[in-house]
């Protein structure tokens, strides 16, 4: 048991006389039991009375479902057909067909049949220039060019061999890499100490000097002997705080501007 010097006042920790609800964690009223009224979400462990629902009025039956008395059958129609005397209808008189009228001698023009029956000389007519002919744009003399007489593209005369200067092609040259294999510089040199015996290595460090009078040394105030816990037992340490309960409402403070 710890000493009484760590407590303030007459209060000391003790066992509670009765159960405290805040010490026990339970779901509480967040889970609701199923009800005993109604048909939806009824308690399955309890008896449920029969339930009746209020129906709605059915739609009107379709009037075209059966012939019924909708159709009016004439009185002169029997199962053997139409019964009664022959009936005739009154209609208008049809038009008489026109008589064939043959053409007379004055209907013909024999003077207009000279070119069809007799030989006639050629005849020419004078008419205006049509608009379609003006839209045709024919090329002028300057549109055509004569073939050149100099150079390799001469179509009339023979030309001497010509040569062009171009860059060296990589395909087919003497330095073309056909196998596409890496060269000696593509590999990294392996450290020989990996597959051979490695000799001892020494490193060069700076020279250490003995601190003199001009060296900066820590004073008495640089040490904290009260924090040393290696040579003696450490005193108990406490933090300022309290245990928060999930049932305590948060503290709200209205700050007026």
Automatic annotation (TrEMBL):
Record-linked InterPro entries: CIMAP, SHIPPO-rpt
GO cellular component: cytoskeleton
Name of the protein in its database record: Ciliary microtubule associated protein 1B
């Amino acid at each position: 048991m710890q000493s009484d010097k760590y407590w303030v006042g007459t209060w000391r920790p003790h066992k509670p006389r009765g159960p405290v609800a805040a010490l026990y964690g339970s779901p509480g009223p967040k889970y609701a039991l199923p009800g005993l009224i109604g048909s939806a979400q009824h308690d399955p462990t309890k008896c449920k009375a029969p339930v009746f629902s209020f129906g709605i009025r059915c739609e009107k039956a379709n009037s075209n479902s059966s012939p019924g008395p909708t159709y009016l059958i004439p009185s002169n129609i029997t199962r053997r057909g139409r019964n009664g005397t022959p009936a005739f209808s009154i209609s208008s008189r049809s038009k008489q067909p026109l008589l064939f009228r043959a053409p007379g001698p004055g209907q013909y023009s024999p003077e207009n049949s000279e070119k069809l029956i007799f030989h006639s000389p050629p005849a020419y007519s004078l008419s205006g220039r049509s608009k379609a002919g003006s839209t045709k744009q024919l090329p002028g003399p300057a549109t055509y060019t004569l073939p050149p007489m100099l150079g390799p593209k001469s179509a009339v005369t023979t030309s001497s061999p010509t040569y062009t200067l171009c860059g060296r092609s990589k395909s087919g040259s003497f330095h073309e890499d056909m196998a596409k294999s890496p060269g000696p510089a593509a590999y990294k040199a392996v450290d020989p100490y990996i597959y051979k015996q490695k000799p001892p290595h020494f490193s060069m460090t700076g020279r250490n000097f003995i601190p003199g009078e001009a060296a900066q040394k820590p004073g008495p105030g640089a040490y904290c002997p009260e924090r040393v816990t290696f040579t003696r037992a450490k005193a108990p340490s406490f933090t300022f705080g309290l245990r928060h309960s999930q049932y305590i409402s948060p503290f709200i403070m209205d700050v007026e501007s």
